[in-house]
Batch of 4 targets.
Target 1
Amino acid sequence: MAKAETKSVDRASIEMLEKAASEGVNTAFDRAETMKPCPIGTVGSCCSNCGMGPCRVPLPKGKEETPEEKRKRRGICGATAETIAARNFIRMIAGGAAAHSDHGRGVAELFLAVAKGEASGYEIKDEQKLLQVALEWGVDIGNRSNQEIAIDIGEKALAEFGKQKDEILFLRRAPLKRQELWRKQEVAPRGIDREIVEIMHRTHMGVDQDYRNLLKQGVRAALADGWGGSMIATELQDILFGTPAPVLGEVNLGVLKRDEVNLIIHGHEPLLSEMIVVAAQDPQMVELAKSKGANGINLAGICCTANEILMRHGIPLAGNFLQQELALVTGAVDAMVVDVQCIMQSLPDIAQCYHTKIITTSPKAKILGAMHIEFDEHNAMESAQAILKTAIENFPHRGKNIHIPDERTDLIAGFSHETINYLLGGLFRASYRPLNDNIINGRIRGVAGVVGCNNPRVTHDEVHVTMVKELIKNDVLVVQTGCSAMACAKAGLMVPEAAAKYAGEGLASVCEAVGIPPVLHMGSCVDNSRILMATTAMVKDGGLGDDISDLPVAGAAPEWYSEKAISIGQYFVASGVFTVFGVNWPTLGSDEVTKLLFQDFEEMYGGMWAFEPDPIKAAHLMIDHIDKKRKALGIDKARERILYDMAMRRELDAV
Ligand code: XCC
Ligand code: SF4
């Protein structure tokens, strides 16, 4: 087995990998070493969509391949490498869009139940956003109560999923030019469910066999995710739980406490975690913990649920995706409660080596070997209390082999699109004007969204951190979500002091003037919709073109693993953003499909995909793209000047 230091750049994770090895615990890091990826599957050339297969289409031979040979590279049904790669790719989009959107649907269902007074313990926290969505969706405000307005919004939100003909409502948030482009390309999505079902239909054997037409449906479903399912999730969560504002937090396994009951919340939907946060503050619960010999109750998060409760409550982050197993290896986790997505089936098995209870809560996500306490939002508090009690009662069963790595880092999170608005423009003149101005005058070169997962096929966190450092060094402001945000938070990039330490002179000067870090945490993966809103706000504020594709911005998911990442990447590309992925690229088995995604899409959508596993090279692809856009906007000269002009520097000191 390879040395632990080669598997992660995170000290805490390395320590836990060493502990796991000495205790004979097998993790995803080990499994990735013994299970080599299938070379044909990796490039999207393996089809198992029917019982005549699976068909493994040989890899393209490159330039020497004769047309005759190429014609023979087919599945049994005759499907070409193009069709197979395109089908596989859009099935990934369907999986990812379904995950985000079903999350959004769950929020909408709860939202409606709360509005109807059927879900006690929840309330409407952000009235301003409630009214804003009401205005946008044509819900009558008049002198109706919040409850009445919320019922209409909840019903409209749920109807978004099953709309048969009309476009989804949030599409209208996009710049007008973008909306027109989508309509012209025939990708403006109808109901979210409909687009996902249509992918499953078209990719069945013998249906859509034109890779361009398949990809078009992929784009449509991805847009239904970004501007639909994910945006509904984010907006309704904000109304119910509060729109995030800057908050100080801590990240890494060192947030676990030796003398307190440690309950880790892992997964994605804040419906459950919000209630656990409330239940953990109940004096009776704290008393119960004390009666078991603990000094209190310590909550910590893993994966996107962690981001949700950090943003809204300052609950610490235990770690990102690849730390879920490692958290158990500390021996100090009394229970880990999970809901949906990114939860490894190995958890109950590893938990057996320690004392940890793994608790599933969703009827959609049970795991053999875990205990199940179903989360019922109509009795949410009861479910939350039962989960907490399980953790507390398990505290006395801790074993002897406890080791919590002494690693934790401060971060500031909570940069919702609204927060950025306030911070930059001030409470009374909230706007993106200062951001746009600083981009135009070249202090900020552009904005990059770096998001997504961990993947044990690459060194844990290394690719995220290297890429983001390179970007900020080159004056690119970075916004982040998901596990990528946690990677960079652990590396100390999400505190204001990071600006002076790592950022280029222009970016650092702006960060220091405003008091923000050079890397902004915008939330969970459904919150990538916040980045869509932020880019739209930049367009609407003026001076940077009239479409998202005019902006000097770029996106990346350098350690992606999830189908959700593919859906996210595709909706960014189709919204006009150049997006680069690392690790591997799932269409390399077809030159035609890859060319469509990497080149032709630029003409069609103003945004395109790229693949570059080297983080420095990938960062420079993004920077080159940003510079290309600056040039097209005629603001490339301003940047040259800022680098040399002392008078401008003095003026800036006066800010
Ligand atoms: Fe999952 Fe959302 Fe990926 Fe992290 S970043 S591994 S999807 S938790 Ni969303
Ligand atoms: Fe093979 Fe075609 Fe069936 Fe896919 S659909 S498994 S390519 S026969």
Target 2
Amino acid sequence: MTGEAVYVDDILVNEQLLVGRVVYSPHAHARIKSFDLTKAKQLPGVHAVLCHKDIPGHNQMGPVVKDELCLAVDEVTFVGQAMFLIAAEHEDQCVEAERLVSVEYELREAILEIETAIEKNNLLGPVRTIERGNVEGALRSAPHVIKGELRTGAQEHWYLESQVCLCIPGEGREINVFSSTQHPSETQALIAELLGIGKHEVVVEVRRMGGAFGGKETQANHTACWTALLCWATRRPVKIRLFRDDDMKITGKRHRFLSQYEVGFDDEGVLSAAKFDLNSDGGATVDLSMAIMERAKLHVDNAYYVPNMSVTGRVWKTNLPSNTAFRGFGGPQGMAVIETVIDRIARYLKKDPAEIRFKNFYGLDTNDVTHYGEVVENNRLFLIYHQLMQSSEYQKRRKAVNEFNASYEFYKKGLAITPVKFGISFTTSFLNQAGALVNVYKDGTILVNHGGTEMGQGLHTKIQQVAAAVFGVSLERVKVNATNTSKVPNTSATAASAGTDLNGMAVKHAIDILKSRIAEAIAQVFTEKHPASPSLQDSVIFQDDYIIDEKHPERKIAFADAMPLMQLRQVSLSATGFYRTPDIGWDKEKGHGRPFHYYAFGMAVTEVLLDVLTGHHTILRTDILHDVGDSLNPGIDIGQIEGGYIQGVGWCTTEEIKWDDKGNLMTHSPDTYKIPSVQDIPRDFRTALLQGVPNPNTIRKSKAVAEPPLMLALSAWLAIKDAVSAAAQHEFEPEFSLPATNEVILLSIEKLKQKTSERVTEDVGAKPPLVSSK
Ligand code: MTE
Ligand code: MOS
């Protein structure tokens, strides 16, 4: 806001700085027959033009599976794949040098659609199923069965700060890396392996990112590796900052999904069986695709109990940039399927979808085990549902919407409530760990280092609050340092919404250690003054910037005055902390276990107004009630909830990614890719935090907030579907996909009108497609 925040591109560097540029493949699939870099290297101002042969260590930057080359060798498998690197004194010299690079290709067939990958059986990894009960039997005996297919689209992260890295050579083999990465330890590891040096030579520092949203969990590594290689080759500081269009073309997106479902239910709309087949477009390499598919499978139930259920996930390999983490991490794609199912059941039974949702919620004491065996503890669904239905005046507004729709032909309103139940923890269980290093200085100031990174989600503010509260001091006394791999090593990515949960606990652990050391010494100080009635370590407390003997409150010393005494008495004022999430465990082969420490819950009611002639929609009002346990910072939490919802609205409505038939991204700038703007914010936006719900066994009884609210946007998507359905008096069910762009909406309305006119002429019964009743 004030322009004071320092991002990577703002770091002051001397005149030695070189500009780096990546030369990437213009083809989706081709063999590299030959290339010639001679002319490019001769250009004045150019300091390096590198190819794969110039890599001193491993030519690899795959985060989980080593299937991702840093620089292409003899083949390129997507448009945007890095082939060569250039470092020059000025940007225009880089551009000029790139023109002088010559390459001969032999084009190969490219797979650009999930369907084509399925036809060719081009899988990216193992196929896994999670199953409970007897699905086939339950489907056979169900009174009603619905089948269908749902497409959900890709999504561009659109972090405001594009991928960027600055590398500065140190002494000997040392390299200092300033990267906009969610995962400094992985960036460090990949650079070390690429350069063939020890990790102790590589320091990665992250002050903050200008937004990430999952797009910098693994894919910041690419820009960092390229920059490091140029820095290594030139022994000069080098910076690469991707242009927006390049960033959009060469980095992966949210995975698009093509999902099939078949569900059985009774006359009341209660689900008895569900079979799901989820297919995702993984892109050219594995990246995080397997974990993302896993989370989709673990969230295809959303908030609903399905006694007999199976879900199979297949990740398909295509010739597109590798798709990657994006807020929700597969959760949104899974939930969109069951929310469609519930909506279809309601339309089929001619009931309000809110009622069907309520009937299928996980129970408080019964029907409370998920398809993968975890018990839904501390279920807040009913609490939230009842409060939100009331505060949003859902029933009254449902009537008003119906009345409005009866009196307007070219405008229709729609209303929907959708829940979110989101599991908190990395599903790769060992990743649920964090470290911290807390230093207290002689003047009583405190410097907190932890493994998490700041990307705008407010993690450092929450950590500062946690540290101040645990130490019983004022906020100003505590500073949270830039994340640095030399302070806290071997960290996990800041992801899975668990940043505060994990790092907050690690910081608390370090501070608890410091407090016990200080308390022991202070008890001695007090005792020396009052030898007749000794102070005990256990009765020393830290409060309001003082250290006090609780039993003798007149014995107290200001925190800042106590620290010099600690140095005199040779007490260490530096401590590391560590945390690992207890009681979780997940067997991905068996598809069974307790992957999540707990669940976050929330619900949203969205009302939209649809212009039937143009497909344009406006969100009139959104009411959200979300569970964050005891909020560490209501301002940040509400910001995350509103931001998450709006980001989800973008995915559900206007954000549409298109490639041409050669695998070129066509929507690579803001003029063709529409993210939500201020115009798209609900006219009336009411967000509230569920009160009186402390979360057991977490840092200060709080709950993660970051990702779950994104999925609340499904209420906007289904409110639009509701309005579309109203355009044909709810007689037929609209065909619908995600995002519901104006085009999708208009086509859907067009099809409904055709059906209405066919019925008028042929008098055919009003049966929604693909539904069978027995
Ligand atoms: N909020 C802002 N402003 N910017 C971001 O990049 N990333 C989201 C979420 N909220 C993001 C954000 C994602 S994908 C995750 S996983 C979490 O923040 C990570 O931070 P946390 O675990 O500390 O909540
Ligand atoms: Mo968030 S998608 O877990 O970085």
Target 3
Amino acid sequence: MVDAEPLDAVVIGAGFAGLYMVYRLREQGFSVQGFERGDGVGGTWYWNRYPGARCDSEIMFYSFSFLPDLEQEWPLTERYPGQPDILRYLEEVASRLDLRKDFTFGAEVTALEFDEAAGRWTLRTAQGHQVTARYVVTAVGCLSTANQPRFPGADSFRGLTLHTGNWPREPVDLAAQRVAVIGTGASGIQAIPVIAERAAHLTVFQRTAQFTIPAENGPLDDQFVALWKQNYPEWRRRARHSPAGFAYNPSITSAFEVSAAERRAAFEAAWGAGGFTFLSGTFRDLALDEEANETAADFVRSKIDEIVRDPEVAEMLKPRDFPIGTKRLPLDTNYYETFNRPNVTLVDLKRTPVEEITPAGIRTSAGHHDLDVIVYATGFDALTGPLEALGIRGRGGRSLRDAWREGPRTYLGVAVPGFPNLFTITGPGSPSVLSNMPVSIEQHVEWIGDCLAWARGHGAKVIEATEQAAAGWTDHVQQVAGHTLHPKAASWYMGANIPGKPRIFLPYIGGVGNYRDRCAAVAANGYEGFVTSGEGSGDHGARPGDHRAA
Ligand code: NA7
């Protein structure tokens, strides 16, 4: 399957990012083809079909802002949209914009090689497609390469083995089954209460206890929805210029400006209201000051004591290894409550580690658990994993994996020196997973679209971030993270969940609004930090920033 027609651009992925990028480039008159390994659109929401899968962003913010008609028509049913709703939304977007014809589905990209003489990329898939394109835009998501631990004997298990991030499309019947869930991150915390209701018995294998905050999910009031829809443009504007892509005001009060009783009352109110504002909306120093952070952590531990009836189980569930919020804070529905059920057992893997998987279950140092199903809720090789899996080779045949051996080096999280004409939507070094994704995705898609239009307008065939710009940005990303408590946790933000992965803070924590301004300034200054050349490699690097955007 060799496509002889050279393209202007290829886009990899058909989630929020890939759908909008293909649409945008098509509208701008570029010839563009999307490649997607799944058999349909959806990205994250195509793969994560596990029981209880739901978005932790509120539904009002979790959609595109560039489709005003759909924005008005789409029902805002529950506070947090479930996986089936989001998938339906993206399918509707694909239909309305007639996007499926521009994608090749069931096509897993395994090689992307840059031809320096031609200034073009060649893309190959495992299924035998081959195309060339001037530009590559990756829209592969930040959490799409599953982390699959290799326990001894794992292949011998006779029951069903599943991963939350790669859940089958056909319904999985867990009724009357003895189920294990390994992992208590955001996915495990969503899945555990729902699986517990269906399974005969559920054993939860916990390595690190997690803080979680009630989601307080539920139907949205009609009047609230009507008012929200009337004011949508203003909500969207505020989200774009906010710290995390939501239109809420962060607190300006320190945890120590109030009395202990007032502090507790503030946490109690936020716990009752549900959602991420438990941290950002209560006190301004929870992410910055260990003592302040500890007041919130203590509050959650006290809630665990209130909710969980068995004191020994409550103790096992209390997180003590990291400041609250430095690992992604999950939102839950009845998570701690689930451990009061008679059909649920909690196993602490730090005390009694897994020794092996057997044909009949899991053996820990304390004994054997008989099982029919093992669910790995063990997360992802975040941010860098999905990009490194594409087999990207840039100038001099250098692989991206090699270039990032000591951690990702990017300019604005959107471009990589040595890899010309390659753009990474929500790549490492951008707000990405620390933000409401559709807001960050729209900003990247629009910025990349403008950049390619500018390059075309200026006759540039090759555009590439400079080493210097990437070094400056990469240092800045680490510096900003260093002002927070985040580097103190062994989190996937730090690459700590993957053995051998460098410990570097991967996303940009400087805020969505600030980041947007920075990107806009780069564009306004003639794509400062990029170099362009007219044809192939001929005059590479000849014209750094000598154009001004129209
Ligand atoms: P996470 O947040 O990475 O959670 C994975 C969980 O699996 C976490 O509790 C890990 O424990 C545990 N884990 C990972 N490897 C192992 C091994 N080898 N043995 C036992 N336990 C293990 O992934 P999620 O899918 O829950 O969430 C990812 C993001 O998706 C989420 O933050 C949202 O943004 C959406 P650990 O804490 O590392 O000790």
Target 4
Amino acid sequence: MKRASALVLVLILGATVPRAAAPAIAIDASTLAGKVSPLLYGLMTEEINHSYDGGLYAELIRNRAFLDDAASPAHWTAVQGDGAVAAIALDKNQPLNATIATSLRVEVTQASSGHAAGVANEGFWGIPVRPNTRYRASLYAKTAPGFTGPITAAIQSDDGKTTYASGRVSGLTQAWKQFDVTLSTADVAATANARFVLTVERPGTIWFSLVSLFPPTYKNQANGFRPDLLQMLIDMRPKFLRFPGGNYLEGDQIADRFEWKKTLGPLSERPGHMAPWTYRSSDGLGLHEFLMWAEDMNAEPVLAVYAGYSLKGAYVKPGPDLEPYIEDALDEIEYVTGPATSTWGSLRARAGHPAPFKLTYVEVGNEDFFDRSGSYDQRFAQFNQAIKARYPSLQVISTVGFEHPENQRVRSVTPDVVDEHYYRTVEAFLKAARGQYDKYDRKGPKIFVGEWGAYETPFEPWNPRSRGEAPTPNLRAAIGDAAWMTEMERNSDLVIMHCYAPLLVNVSPGARQWRPNLIGYDALRVYGSPSYHAIKLFATHLGDEILKASATDTDVLVSVTRDSRSRTIYVKLVNAGAAAVPVQLDIAGASLRSAGTAITLAGDPQDTNSIDAPERVVPKTSPVTGVKSGFIYTVPASGIVVLELGAR
Ligand code: AHR
């Protein structure tokens, strides 16, 4: 019999054709599969892509301490022309102090009323001008004999033709003195095509140091954060903040590590340091500011301590050589958690925070699987022993997880937690979302996925010129991220914390070192990538109980949780396919309300958000009616959905 006639016969007889089962998801609301970790979800941060200087840390002056480049006053230019003449140069002979050992000399040889000369700072890709806004400028200055000022501090257009705000500094002498001045804009149009200038209208020689300009900060905190950026993070309701890195913790060389003690105190006592992502950090956002940032978000710090390995391969031998680094880490923990009467706790109190911060987890190093000397096992053991001896309640995290061969992992002791990092393609995450963590030993260490992110293109994150892609990911990547989050959430009895990386990117030309990143911004604006919206959606619809859910005949990925107090059930569904999928939701053991809500992130998988089109891919909320066990819900193509289902 030919195949076509056999098919006709089968269709006529009907009964011999097996019926395809309808795609279905069975949820058992009567049995808990586990408790949601109280630390889902969180954030990871480091100084990369101008995350702090030129990003979250609200300072507007670039190279404020004149230490960024030893050869020239980078990002500063002379203001002259039209009958005004000025020369600028770094000067090591007139240091502010031993920490800021270089100043800027400005020699004005010609200037007169209406023909001002001086110096301009370009800011971090422009100075953001907003209407009706007060800026706080501060600077150290001294002069050569014969000149006492005044100096005009102003925010003006790049071409110098429009002054948006200005103020005066007078009473300069031959000794260093700090001056503060408030600059207020009127009802001007917002722009970032602006610069900060310090000018005079008669000849004289002036030295400047630590020139700073702050816009209004979050809650008006001194030395604080950009409110729009911080609000984006607060809106994610993070439970923890992992800091200070990442590679930023380690530095390229041991001398470039994050030396937390040098990031404390007045800005004039912070030298800053060369960071691994090709530029210097001012360290204006230092240890204390990290802690305040976590507190502002109502999140707990997850503190990474330098563990004696730096990126280019230098390491400290375990044993006596490592002891000073261990002492340093113990001091750091005391700064965070010690009483205000302790040596380091008292410094924290003096900085304005007498109460200790909550600290549960300390991470020893970062990605120590790169240490080919094999020293991590012993270094970790030495840190672990010392931390536990002084702080028995702290949980200690190893930086080598089960994604690495056993001989790279810590073997001589069992870490409380291991940190796994996953930068993967969307396809790899879709695969991993089908049970990677089911295979893990529940009696072993807990898992912290301290860095993860999906790539829609081959992995080449650190090449900023690579194929000219967007700095932030598209919807397709967000689907990979969401798939991976369902896996971590379902297993959050084991995966107690996780966080996407990198978090922040200044999207101005030349500012980034990595792609993709979660949140993009320039001097004036900020936007969330589709991945940002996916994470926020997951984090803000969570509850505290994991319910058992299993899918039949569908590739749709699922995670189901419940809020034990309100009884609300959250069903997260991820459809990576190009067609919408109707799924039957069989929910046993719950008395469901018939009206629910769907929050959906869906569309063209290649679509993305950008600084000019910030809301192309954003979640949409719609009602769901007829909710009962066995109801059909159609998951949109390339879609991420959270169903919020009320129950009694
Ligand atoms: O997230 C960017 C970098 O990726 C981190 O600094 C490092 O830990 C990882 O290799």
